[in-house]
Design brief:
By secondary structure, the chain is an alpha+beta fold. It is built from one helix and three strands. The termini are close together.
Amino acid sequence: MSVVKVIEITSSSPTSFAEAVKAGIAKASETIHGIKGAWVSEESLVVENDQVTEFRVTMRVSFVLD
């Protein structure tokens, strides 16, 4: 039997939402092992001087407990 834990994280990228997701998973995997999936629950932008400067995502990350 396995038990899965779900955490919520937020990450960002100056390039795209996809890159923000990749950056978040990469950072989470430095300390969390056994990541099985992620669900993006929110996307937002930072706008400065009429230009998009940052893409942000909030996601739920699931991983199997040891």
